């Protein structure tokens, strides 16, 4: 057995097939071993293992090879968190009981791995890391893979591409930065004015038509953000004013005036004006919003003249030509507040009132340096639903180089369903957050018998559903091109901020929501997406994407024509000798010319 292990190790060293693995990736381990790779194992305990004397350790491992002993070979890479170790132990107990792999791992303990697949770069010895040829992670990904970073990066997209990010990314603001907070306040107010016009058109005479009536909240009017932060979502709150008291008659007229002024701003009619935007000063916004809440959230009636109805229709039609996100806004002005650097749906809150979001913003601002703990983003109020249930799409892609940018798109993906029917009058996570880690809390909920019990569909099942609706072409003609364009635009405006490293690659998971018109909207991009199977669909697809990723980054080096599975080349930039780095702040300096 020792002789066999030595032969395999010698061959692996000669062929540069030594790998290290950190994290719960049994599929990667199995695939690499099947290719003849030998693993240099990482420590399992919570502290870095000390190197034992070589002769003593060799005797222990040889004893294991013959069937005795229970210690594991030492490694010199930094340790991992205990929780990750326990999780991997559970998933890999069958493989790790094979003593010959432990013996081979000891025999290569002094070898620098040729390939590293890790869940976190910070866990790896920083002196060893630069010597590893192929690594599955890039450093400094915050500009792309945090909510704050993506929000800021996409604002700079016009410097790189003539594309309006509002066509694929719901508008987003970083709370804690004064300028962006003020921009959010103005956006919230303008959206409320547009929403009021939409609500007005849904009323016939003084009777509401086609709008849901929110149930009375069980929360008191004094309900504060720290209360709803615990439950991850805020519910519509009742105003202290009675819903039967009459609205002031100028409400619709003020909404019309604000939207008309906003159209002027969108048409750059205010370009030479030094006074504040009329959208901020033309009406009493505090009073307007309180009256809007009564109409939107309490069902207070509106009476509209024929002339006003025609004005509303005309204004909304003109606004639609200028605002690419008008179609996703709905009528209730719902916004979603997210922790800037958390994942798996943790800490996410839905809000329908400006004061809720501002209280949260005040809790995360303070001298001397502004910090962005939260971002606020426009909620897609009109998503495409399946069996009246909200879903999102997890779409994989791989970046194999940043300079020149080289991106591979994976043709297979999966859908994640919520556990309860979609409703904007009930803002609990079970209806609005599609993350598997959130929905597993609601395993007993079944919105519709046609929704799978594990709340997962493959893209093939989704395409079959679209075909039954008579929209079979929507996937290939609208959704896939939209996802590809959004991914590529996000990468283009972040590549100069990412730590590029030749020989590295990374598998990313982008999350998309689909609108009623089948247009995909990018929500976020995740580094190191989960490969833990939560269903039969993800068990198959996650195994496939790991297999195809190895084909792409390893097999293709020796055989450029080899199969790379479901990957296709999305973009390969023409190589250039140097790059022009765009700064975030540009200025012109000089002196004025005086007439002679």
Automatic annotation (TrEMBL):
One of its GO terms (molecular function) is protein-glycine ligase activity, initiating. Residues 302-329 form a coiled coil. Residues 43-95, 207-226 are annotated as: Disordered. The keyword Coiled coil applies. Keywords: ATP-binding, Cell projection, Cilium, Coiled coil, Cytoplasm, Cytoskeleton, Flagellum, Ligase, Nucleotide-binding. Residues 43-65, 215-226 have a biased composition (Basic and acidic residues). It is found in: Cytoplasm, Cytoskeleton, Flagellum axoneme. It catalyses: L-glutamyl-[protein] + glycine + ATP = glycyl-L-glutamyl-[protein] + ADP + phosphate + H(+). GO terms for cellular component: axoneme; microtubule cytoskeleton. InterPro entries: TTL/TTLL_fam, TTLL_monoglycylase. Pfam families: TTL. GO terms for biological process: cilium assembly; cilium movement. PROSITE patterns: TTL. This is TTLL3 monoglycylase. It comes from Irena cyanogastra (Philippine fairy-bluebird). The lineage of its organism: Eukaryota, Metazoa, Chordata, Craniata, Vertebrata. The gene is Ttll3_1.
